[in-house]
């Protein structure tokens, strides 16, 4: 990397940079430069203590959600079921030096289903010096014990996954009850801790890309802001894998349909650049059709999700 050589494992950062979206690589370089290369310290830690989750999101699998186990077995996805239904990492194994930690990222599963994260917080001796990044599916609003721990951190970014609204939300993040999602989201905003930021995070894929404008409209109403302000609030990403949900691999005429839908919209240029970043792969969208046939067995496909499916 320091010799400006291409590294295959860093493709996502290269792609984000080409799209004009700041990559993790650029963010880390801004924060730390190269000063820790010869004298490394643990400044940032990303950790998932387990995969226990109450959702079966369409872009997920058993590795990140225990709820997917039975369906992964049904689909023959043994690369995920080999892990077992529930994976747990022992909190006692975290015995390395965290005294210089300043960024902690908590993932799941769904972290609010796992009280061992409270044990992790208990073991951190300097929370007032640490920025916490916490990812949640927003199905659970935390009790006072969690909130008291949150108050101790220097700053908290709550990343709330919102891959669609209304029927699309309930389809793509299977297990979601959108009325409850909306109620919990408002509770987060009402909580209004001085050290807290709420970040709605949208991941574009084949089954929700046509619902993004509706999602932004819902957020505009929640925040009572216009579209210009929402650009600063919303976090978003483009799904790479599984490939059969990757929008950039769709047939050209369907990509054009998506582009036409977003023409003139503030996020239009980034969406176009992503769609044009890869070429059509016939095998991939054959697998997309097979996967949709499976998903139809568990719930009705919303109109916006069906729109792409019918065209494919």
Walk me through what this model shows.
By secondary structure, this protein is α/β, with parallel strands linked by helices. The protein has 14 helices and eight strands. The protein has helices at residues 11-18, 24-32, 69-75, 78-81, 116-123, 144-152, 166-172, 178-191, 212-223, 227-233, 252-261, 268-275, 282-295, 303-311, and strands at residues 44-47, 56-57, 103-106, 131-136, 155-161, 173-174, 196-204, 235-238. The strands form two sheets. It has a six-stranded parallel beta sheet with strand order 1-3-4-5-7-8. A two-stranded antiparallel sheet has the order 2-6. The longest helix is centred in the middle third of the chain and has 14 residues, at 178-191.
What descriptive keywords fit this protein?
312 residues, alpha/beta, two-stranded antiparallel ribbon, 40% helix, globular
Q: Tell me about the largest β-sheet.
A: 6 strands, parallel
**Residues in β-strands, percent:** 5-15%
Tally of DSSP helical segments: 14
Helix share of residues? Answer: 40-55%
* Lateral strand order in the biggest sheet: 1-3-4-5-7-8
What would you report as the Rg, rounded to the nearest angstrom?
A: 20 Å
Cα shape: globular
What structural class do you assign from the helix and strand content? alpha/beta
Order of helices and strands: HHEEHHEHEHEHEHEHHEHHHH
Strand element count: 8
Quote the average pLDDT.
90
- Distance N terminus to C terminus? 39 Å
Low-pLDDT stretches are: none
């Amino acid at each position: 990397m320091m010799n400006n050589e291409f590294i295959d494992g860093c493709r996502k950062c290269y792609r984000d940079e080409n799209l004009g979206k700041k990559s993790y690589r650029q963010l880390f370089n801004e924060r730390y430069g190269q000063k820790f290369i010869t004298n490394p310290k643990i400044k940032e830690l990303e950790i998932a203590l387990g995969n226990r989750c109450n959702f079966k999101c369409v872009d997920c699998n058993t590795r990140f959600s225990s709820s997917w186990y039975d369906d992964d077995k049904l689909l023959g996805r043994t690369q995920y079921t080999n892990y077992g239904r529930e994976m747990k990492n022992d909190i006692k194994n975290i015995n390395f030096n965290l005294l210089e930690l300043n960024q902690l990222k908590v993932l799941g599963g769904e972290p609010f289903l796992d009280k061992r994260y409270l044990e992790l917080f208990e073991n951190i001796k300097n929370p007032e010096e640490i920025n916490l990044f916490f990812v949640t599916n927003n199905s659970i609003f935390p009790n006072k014990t969690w909130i008291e721990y949150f108050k101790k951190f220097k700053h908290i970014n709550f990343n709330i996954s919102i891959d669609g609204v209304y029927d699309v939300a309930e389809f793509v993040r299977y297990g979601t009850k959108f009325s409850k999602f909306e109620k919990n989201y408002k509770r987060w905003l009402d909580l209004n801790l001085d050290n807290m930021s709420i970040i709605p995070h949208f991941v574009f894929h084949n089954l929700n890309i046509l619902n993004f404008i509706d999602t932004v409209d819902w957020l505009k109403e929640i925040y009572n802001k216009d579209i210009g302000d929402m650009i600063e609030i919303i976090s978003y990403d483009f799904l790479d894998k599984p490939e059969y949900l990757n929008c950039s691999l769709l047939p050209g005429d369907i990509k054009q349909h998506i582009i036409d839908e977003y023409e003139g919209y503030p996020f239009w240029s980034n969406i176009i650049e992503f769609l044009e970043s890869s070429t059509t792969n016939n095998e991939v969208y054959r697998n997309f059709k097979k996967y949709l046939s499976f998903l139809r067995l568990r719930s009705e496909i919303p109109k916006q999700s069906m729109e792409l499916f019918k065209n494919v």
